[in-house]
Structures are given as C-alpha cells and as structure tokens.
Amino acid sequence: MKVYTERLMLREMTPEDGESIFRYRSDADTNRFQSWIPESSGEVEQFIKNHIKDFNVPGTWFQLLIADKDSSSVIGDIGVHFTGSDGQQAELGITVGKEYHHKGYATEALKGIIGYLFRDLRKHRITASVDPRNAASMKLMERIGFRKEAHFIKSLFWKDEWADDVIYAILREEWETMQ
Length: 179
Fold this sequence. Notes:
The protein is of the alpha+beta class. The protein has helices at 18-25, 41-50, 105-120, 135-143, 172-178; strands at 2-4, 8-12, 61-68, 74-83, 89-96, 125-130, 147-158, 161-171. A hairpin with a 2-residue loop joins strand 7 and strand 8 (161-171).
C-alpha cells in the first residue's frame, strides 16, 4: 500500500527502516506527546516485526512511513486506527522528525492519507486526538480542515498524570467540499 503526494510517499514499514525510525522516534523532547518513545533500535525492530500487516482492518492500528519521494529518506510516520465495528471511521496520529518540522511535510502527508481514506476507501469520518498542550498539532488539525468537536478535561491517565484530550474530526462530505 502506497500513497504519493507532491514530495512524499506514504508506505509500509520494512525491517530496513528500523534505524531511521529509531532516529526520530527516540527523541523524547520532539515526541513528548507520543505514547511510544523507543529506548533501543531493538525495540523498533520488535515493533516492526509485530506490526499489523493488513491495511484497513477494523480495530487495528496501521503505521505508514512518511518518506521523501526523491531520496526515500524517512521523515516520520502516520498511524491509522481503523475504528468502529463497521470500518467506516478512522483515527490518525502523526510523528515527524524535528529536522523536518515547519516545512509542510505533516500537512502534505495528512492530506495525502485523508484523501486516500475518503476517496479510495470511502470512509465516513476521520478523527484525531490531541493533547491541548500540543499547540502545533492543534493548529495543524485546523489548517487541514478538521473541526474541534470536544475538549475532555483530565480524561486520560497518561505518563503518570491526568491529561486533557481534544478531539478533532472531519466528515467525507466536508473534505470533498474543500477539494
């Protein structure tokens, strides 16, 4: 499964990607709002080995790598959680290495996968869960057309503390009117 944008290719992970993934995912400061910060390249190798191999299976997360289309360099990843028993909804999460911040890669990658999910897989609704302390991610969601649907106060016990959770969403018909 591959999705192409102007500068990027979204693709499946391979064992050869382990070092690249470890390089950007192990940066604790950049990934402070992520649930997974690997402590070793072996941990990344195990993650790749245990990764779901089928895309679009309800109840599963599927991790796609974001790679530069010309150089094949790994920039980050997008997690796609196929939610709902009918498989008509998805949740997205994104991680981009800090050297690629502020260059439009996250916007481009998200628009690419959202387009694929709505156009090709005919999903009904896509959501994203954002920690409100992550102002950059909240701006990103709004920039690509997501609407803020809810702000849950101290609803997640995460990293030894109660954290707020802001839910963003977009419907297929909303996305189609923006295209």
